[in-house]
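We treat protein structure as text, and this decision shapes the records that our systems exchange. We quote a single record here, exactly as it is kept in our systems:
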Amino acid sequence: TSQRCSRCGIVKKSNRKYRGLYMCRDCGYVVNADINGAMNILAKVAGESAAEQIASSGCVNHPVRIRVA
């Protein structure tokens, strides 16, 4: 799930640049690597349309930071 682009579906090991950064060389999508993996898991469990609906809401590209003590 961490090597697959959650936007275009291409799988390349080189797309995972750093531990926390995912950059797709095919479609140019840049996102937190954990978010990308989570979106891929969601697509497998709930289907592509559910993942697309959440991604299009904007919450994936602009997550809210919550600090815990």
